[in-house]
Design a protein that fits this description.
Elements (H helix, E strand, L loop, with lengths): L8 H23 L3 H15 L15
Helix pairs in contact: 1-2
């Protein structure tokens, strides 16, 4: 499912869901004082979020 700009909308939604799920999991680990795991999960969520680029936005709102 691509739009006219060549962006795969399904892929963007999958990446966004993955980043959000990683953040949720990181928050749970942080609440349980498992900071090393939380830090790693936040880092992975950030790297996934950086892969999300939309044509309307040169930057990435999820990363900010």
């Amino acid at each position: 499912m691509s739009n006219p700009n060549g962006v795969d909308l399904t892929r963007l939604r999958q990446l966004q869901a993955m980043a959000e799920n990683l953040c949720t999991l990181a928050n749970r680990h942080r609440e349980n004082h498992n900071y090393v795991v939380a830090h790693a999960l936040y880092g992975r969520a950030l790297s996934v979020a950086q892969e999300i680029h939309t044509p309307e936005n040169d930057g990435n709102s999820l990363v900010t």
